[in-house]
Amino acid sequence: MSGMNLQSGGMKDMRSICRARVMLFVFVILLLVMSVGCGSRSDGATASFKKKSNISNGKSDEGSKPSDDARESADSVKEESPFVYLEKKEMEDINDPGAVYEIYMPRDAEVTDGFATLSQHGISYTADIYGYGEADQRYASFEDHLTLKQKYAHEADSDYIDVADTGIIENGADRYFIFTGRGVDYEGVSFELRQLYYLEMQPSGAGILWDITVYEDYADEDTDPLIDELAECHGINLDLIKPGSTWAVNADQDSYQAKEGDKALEDLEGYQYMGLTSISDYYRETYCDLMLPKARITDIDRTSAFSFLHGVLVSADVSEIYAGNALVTAMKSSADIKYETALHNPQTIRNVKRSAMLPVPGLENALQMAISYEKKSYQSEEYLPRVEALCYIPIDDTYYLSLEIFLSYEQRDDSTDRVIQELETAYGIDLFQYLGGQDETDAPEAEEGPNQSSDAYAAESEAPASKPEGAPKQDNAAGDVTPLTMAMLMGGDGETTDSPDLPDTVLWFNATYAPLTYSNGFNWRLVGGLQITEDNKELIDWGLQNSWNITDRTSALEAVERLKEKGHRQTCRECMEELNKMGLLNLEEKEFRKKFLQSNLSDDYRYVMAYNIHKAGHDADYLAAWDLCRVNQLYADFYILGYMTYEEAMDASLENSLVLQQLYSSWEEMVDGYMLGFQFWSKDSGSKEDSPTKERYRYYEMLKDSDDSPYELDWNMELTKSW
Predict the structure, then answer these.
(1) What is the model's pLDDT at position 493?
(2) Measured between alpha carbons, how far is 639 from 536 in angstroms, rounded to an integer?
């Protein structure tokens, strides 16, 4: 499993004079008490172990407690340590009362409740009792420890690059690995990561897990000698963790080998990098085929799997559908978290974008979505693309496959584009589109019945598909062989579907409520932002019932009439009238705030909004966009639910949109009225960066600046019936 070559060669006998002085004494102790060692060396020597008495009267348990003479002798050994920086210390196992282990550790390390720590000479040292029982259990847990570190190091929020590890190395009964990389601290300062994890086995089957992390900036003249003593003590080479050492990214990334007890990735004809396996839900009620890159850093268990290869991280698990429309709601929730996380790190991240929620070609009800951004390089001021893509595929009525793909150009190499391309082929999704660039494509032919069939899927997002310069051409490792795809494995038709070519007038309707569509993660090119499915109907129905108290066609039409006739502009008008009656509406701002705070209106921010709108030279009707844009959204929802036919919904949207055109002169002016209305409705001052108003406005700006912006449509275009 070695990914790096550790230099070989014997260690120096650093303290030969000291050893000669105590050799005879130690020999006597070895004969009288126990073998003295420093961990499990290649010759099989082990650390000391003793069992404390559980009897409280102070009398010894001769079966478990050494004699006073033996204890005194052992103490003498500790006092005469053959090392300068290391000392044998006791650690008590709090999970096994009375069990005490002795290991060599840095002299100044503090030991409390079975845990040891030290921060000195640029070295952070910790040690902990690592359970008891069979040795195989400790080894398996230690391998899992490496696996978790590998996975975390390559995730989007890990902030590590050039990560490398030695794999698990045997040292007699002990095991260890070295982990290296580059990272960024909490202040944004780059540092080099050098870590050693060592499992020191005990005769009882328990283990002591100790580790050291080396911080080059805090190293001193004692750092290297301390590391040398640890190396000598255990008979291993630790030059790799010394400050100033160099390493290379693992050259054997492609050397996939299934771990003992894990499912294996089978070779797939037509693929160089992808392999086939399966995972299940926790209770093994359903199984799902899975295509995954074959990499040294691969972990597959019963319910989940992940792989990292050439800068591409893929993780998957089987998730349960707890309620209707789980794919839409679960994906939106996950995408929201990723988007907000990236958005709130402006020091190092810029150009944060979120794609629409799109179907996966050839797979019924499967969805994809992506968060893309640029992050400052760890080694320069350059910003490099990153993508966090989601793909959710229904398995049956109860479970779905949750797939996450993370791409970082900070970690790309000559094979990265090929791995991405094979993922695209396997899952039928376009990943290159989020990495920059643009291709010109012709608009697809119009389809009847928008949103209604699999032929009406929307295939566009805010970044049209493109391959980066130098990306390989579409071919496969097996020549003319047609590669297997997830659509084929899961019973889909495997065909790529076209997006609907809606009339420009309908797209104009969609643009009026596009910020809301986009904030939900939906596709503004679809009427209502969603394909018509039973799950999506449930989602829309739930929203209308809970937010609007709409349950049928009658209550639906009543709701839009209230918006068209009154809406929140009527509420704003009433606030202005109240302020005017109190003599506050036309006051200067300073005087207004003083008297407003003394009034009985001060607990309602809408009065402040009404004053500000009036002060800006607008009347209450300037908020009409907030009401009328929602009317268009509702008409689209009514069409999806069947409360209105497509023709009825579009006819009503046309009538409403002509009013909008008369009230405003541009998209910018309409959006300004819409945002003021949103702010008025939400009673949001908009003063905080994460305020709902600023968030909604950011969605508008992202849409406006995107390559597929709805606001490229002419505001003054002639709106005509074209359906």
Answers:
(1) 55
(2) 12
Q: Among 253-267, 279-293, 434-448, 700-714, name the one with the lowest average pLDDT.
A: 434-448
The answer on 508 and 617 residing in a single domain is yes
Q: Do both 482 and 530 map to the same domain?
A: no
Assess contact for 713 and 504: CB atoms under 8 A.
Answer: yes
pLDDT tens readout for residues 124-145: 999 998 866 678 888 988 998 9
Final residue of a structural domain among 241, 276, 291: 241
Is residue 658 located within the same domain as residue 698? yes
The DSSP element (H or E) to which 542 belongs, if any, is helix 534-548
Q: What is the DSSP string of 587-644?
A: S-HHHHHHHHHHSTTTT-HHHHHHHHHHHTT--GGGGHHHHHHHHHHHHHHHHHHTSS
The answer to whether residue 257 sits within a structural domain is no
How do residues 543-566 score in pLDDT, each as one tens digit? Answer: 899 889 999 999 999 999 999 999
**394 part of a folded domain:** yes
What is the per-residue pLDDT across 268-301, written as a single tens digit (0 to 9) for each?
999 999 999 999 988 888 889 999 999 999 999 8
- Global pTM? 0.67
Residues 6+ apart with CB under 8 A from 500: 444, 446, 447, 450, 451, 456, 458, 525, 526
Count other C-beta atoms under 10 Å from residue 432's C-beta.
Answer: 20
Q: What is the pLDDT of residue 492?
A: 65
pLDDT averaged over every residue in the chain: 80
pLDDT (0 to 100) of residue 499: 54
Query: Are 520 and 481 part of one and the same domain?
Result: no
* pLDDT-derived band at 415, boundaries 50, 70, 90: very high
Q: Percentage of the chain surpassing pLDDT 70?
A: 80
Domain assignment of residue 255, yes or no: no
Q: Is residue 496 part of a domain?
A: no
Instruction: Report, in this order, helix, strand and coil percent for the chain, each rounded to 5.
Output: 35, 20, 40
Q: Please say whether the beta carbons of 446 and 427 come within 8 A.
A: no
Domain match, 307 and 456 both: yes
Specify whether 384 is located in the same domain as 281: yes
Residue whose C-alpha is closest to residue 452's, from 529, 537, 531, 538: 531
Task: Name 270's Cβ contacts closer than 8 Å, sequence gap at least 6.
Answer: 476, 477, 478, 481, 482, 483, 484
Containing structural domain, residue 515: 504-712
For the record, the structure tokens of 217 come out as 């900036």
Looking at 489, 512, 527, the residue that finishes a domain is 489
Helix or strand or coil: residue 255? Answer: coil
* pLDDT for position 250: 65
CA distances from 390 to 224, 372, 529 (A): 45, 11, 18
Phi, psi dihedral angles at 715 (to 5 degrees): -60, -40
The arithmetic mean of pLDDT across residues 45-57, rounded, is 38
Total structural domains in the chain? 3
Long-range contacts of 524-527 (CB under 8 A, 24+ apart): 524/356, 524/703, 524/710, 525/356, 525/458, 525/460, 525/499, 525/500, 525/708, 526/450, 526/451, 526/456, 526/458, 526/500, 527/450, 527/451, 527/502, 527/636, 527/639, 527/640, 527/646, 527/649
- Whether 210 and 307 map to the same domain: the answer is no
Order of all β-strands in the sheet with 274-280 = 266-267, 274-280, 287-293
Please tell me what DSSP assigns to residue 204: T
Summarised one tens digit per residue, pLDDT across range 200-237 is 998 877 899 999 999 998 999 999 999 999 999 999 99
Going by the DSSP 8-state scheme, the letter that residue 363 receives in this structure is S
Q: 313, 414, 320, 429: which is closest to 366 by C-alpha?
A: 429
Q: Is the pLDDT of residue 328 over 70?
A: yes
Query: 602 pLDDT exceeds 80?
Result: no
For residue 58, count other CB atoms closer than 10 A to its CB: 6
pLDDT in the model for residue 263: 81
Same domain, yes or no, for 478 and 509? no
CA-CA-CA-CA torsion sign (630, 633, 637, 642)? positive
What are 164's strand-pairing partners?
180
Side-by-side strand order, sheet with 86-92:
48-51, 99-106, 86-92
